[in-house]
Design a protein that fits this description.
This protein is α+β, with helices and mostly antiparallel strands. 18% of the residues lie in helices and 37% in strands. It contains 2 helices and 6 strands. It has helices spanning 31-39, 70-75, and strands at residues 9-11, 20-26, 47-52, 57-61, 64-68, 76-80. The protein has a 6-stranded antiparallel β-sheet. InterPro entries: Fe-transptr_FeoA-like, FeoA_core_dom, Transcriptional_repressor_C. Keywords: Iron. Residues 10-80 form the Ferrous iron transporter FeoA-like domain.
Length: 83
């Protein structure tokens, strides 16, 4: 009756440490957050790896590791890349 399914897209905050995703879009009510994300290269099509989740949220994008606040992380939506 029901067929199995998997989550292929989600907010970056839901990824586990080491998982990668391709940015599908960014959504925030604050324009400053969106401008910050664009300035560091978080744009649709960019590949992001969540390197560290606790004490600080650290992402890797284009061979650069960056610490982001939770508001920025929540604004990023990705399509999960199968490992």
């Amino acid at each position: 009756m029901f067929s199995p399914f998997s989550v292929t897209g989600c907010s970056l905050e839901l990824l586990r440490t080491g998982e990668r995703g391709i940015v599908t879009f960014c959504k925030s009510q604050y324009e400053t957050i969106l401008k910050k994300l664009i300035s560091i290269g978080v744009t649709p099509g960019a590949t992001i790896t969540l390197q560290q989740k606790f004490s600080s949220l650290i992402i890797k994008i284009r061979n650069t590791s960056l610490a982001l606040n939770i508001e920025s992380i929540c604004a990023i939506y990705v399509r999960i890349i199968d490992s």
